[in-house]
Amino acid sequence: MLDTLDAAAVRRWCASGLAALKRHQGEIDQLNVYPVPDGDTGTNLVLTLTSAQQALAMDLDTLPDSGPTAHGHALRLMAQGALLGARGNSGVILSQILRGFADQVAGVPAVRGRELAAALRSGTAAAYTAVSRPVEGTVLTVVAAAAAAAEGADSDDLPTVAGVAARAAAEALARTPEQLPALARAGVVDAGGRGLCVLLDALVEVLTGERTARPAPTPRSARPAATVARETGSDEYAYEVQFLLDARAEAVAGLRRALDALGDSLVVVGDGREPEGTWNVHVHVNDVGAAVEAGVVAGRPYRISVTRFADQSESPSGPVVAGRAAVVVATGGGIADLFAAEGATVVPGNPSTGELLDAVRSTGAARVVVLPNDANTEAVASAAAREAHRYGIKVSVVPTRSPVQALAALAVRDGDRRFEDDVIAMAEAAGACRYAEVCHASREALTVAGPCRPGDVLALVEGEVHLIGTDLTDTCAAVVDRMLGGGGEMVTLLAGVDAPAGLTDAVRAHVARRWPFVEVHAYPGGQPFYPLLVGIE
């Protein structure tokens, strides 16, 4: 049992809450009929909290010399990450609940029961303020009930107050169909409210060490996601527009008025920084251009996402955000040409964080995947990703260790997939590609394959020496045999700058004799130090 919410507990809450949302993601998506029946509230909440967790993981150890407490700093990172990664109405509102929560307790020495109640009340106020036309029977009602119950407990016992708040939220969730006709017609409870209940239950679990099994109220009838008619009054608008905005508060006031005149479901929330902060803007409109133009008038809009609701009804998997790119680290002219042919931005080997960041920003894309192709460069790529976050660019690092893995990853890219799904597919393709490097030993050493001497040919599989030979071609053929012995349908060969003429032809001929059903692709890679790089898929 924890009697205070410290920074470590905040981190566990975020991780536990994200895991719980992932478990309930499909269930929450099925509940989704408000504000639009797009079947993606669970997905949006998962993406929002994933961004919060990434912000915590990247920056938790950078506590400022002065300012908030350690737990306050962690909560603010969590809230800021949620804001920048917020998707849809529920994601934006959740980010504001977290922001209000953080602002309330950032400076208090310890978060106990009464502080938790005050934080929930602050989060409720921030959420209601963010929505231009608050509607009861939504996540707003659920968080308000949790705050009221926490205040009513009037206790410093943190687990007790958290438990009371979570139970009250669940009870309020069960009543949402009585408050919102759209929910009653569909026979479901509010999807965003259900997501908040999952997060509050996760908080109770972190504080008490006991998981609370609290299923959502059972819908009266089952229905496929994204097929229920939109709630009354909302089908007037055909598009959802969402973007981040750097602007001053006084300019945002004018933006609210302009967007309110254009559509509905308006949510404009900020990170609280003065005089200029970052705002997440969400609205339903018919005139997309006018909505974006209003953002340009107010400040600097970026990471603009437009979703046509008719398309959402046909495909509940979520909107595809335009403006994505790939940045690849490559050593060798031939390898760089291969990546460039795949549409990637190529950075020379052993880059600095600044060089990688410059490459990411030069793409002009809002979502960028980075393929480092080296264990050491992976750390640099992660640092560049953190910095890119400050510019509103979402960067995902796929931890490739070899160019052949990056080629496998780029081969499965699909612009019609949501970016997050595309990154997962690329990571899976890279992970399924086993790689080997063949080089010459430069000194005596004792390896797992035995001792080697200068000039010996070494075949490394996944970074570990597996074979030691004296003939380059024979060793290359032998390592391909060893790798294909574990299965494989395609071999990729990249010849190095010092590779003797005919090396890849000899290995190709060997594979054709020994493994006649295996496809072989050979290219001039031009990489130094390694006469041959091998990939097996």
From TrEMBL:
Signal peptide: none annotated. Residues 8-205 form the DhaL domain. Pfam families: Dak2, FakA-like_C, FakA-like_M. Gene3D superfamilies: 1.25.40.340. Coiled coil: none annotated. InterPro entries: DegV_domain_contain (IPR050270), DhaL_dom (IPR004007), DhaL_dom_sf (IPR036117), FakA-like_C (IPR033470), FakA-like_M (IPR048394), YloV-like (IPR019986). PANTHER family: DEGV DOMAIN-CONTAINING PROTEIN DR_1986-RELATED (PTHR33434), PHOSPHATASE PROTEIN (PTHR33434:SF4). NCBIfam families: YloV. This is DhaL domain-containing protein. The lineage of its organism: Bacteria, Bacillati, Actinomycetota, Actinomycetes, Micromonosporales.
